[in-house]
Write a structure and sequence with these properties.
Shape: globular
Strand order of the largest sheet: 2-1-3-4-5-6-7
Helix content: 10-25%
Number of helices: 2
Length: 116
């Protein structure tokens, strides 16, 4: 039995409602995106807790037309990117690839740098 071990989560998922999950699994991320798709939530944000500025994150929003909008920030406003997709599975693949830093994660969707 180990006692006194405290680990800091590397990822945190937060919903529009304020519900928070530390170190979400791939399956949980899919379920949370499903909550957004059903209209139970407006958006989901996944952030890297290792960035003390809170400026390394990816968010998924279901747009008014039913398409998904992904936005990510890699440390500051000058590193802000946007992508879109019509498919939940594509969005889930992009979120998961980014969250778990999979090889070629940036190629899961077409990211465009946004203007500051």
């Amino acid at each position: 039995m180990q006692t006194g071990l405290v680990t800091t989560p590397s990822l945190r998922a937060e919903m529009e409602s304020g519900a928070v999950w530390d170190d979400p699994s791939e399956d949980l991320l899919y379920d949370l995106l499903g909550d957004v798709e059903r209209g139970d939530e407006q958006f989901m944000v996944v952030e890297r807790t290792s960035d003390p500025s809170g400026q390394t994150y990816l968010q998924a929003i279901l747009g008014d037309s039913g398409g998904w909008i992904l936005e990510r920030r890699d440390g500051g406003p000058d590193a802000h990117y946007r992508a879109s997709s019509a498919e939940l599975r594509t969005v889930h693949a992009a979120v998961t690839a980014w969250a778990f830093e999979l090889p070629d994660w940036a190629n899961a969707v077409f990211w465009q740098k946004t203007r500051v």
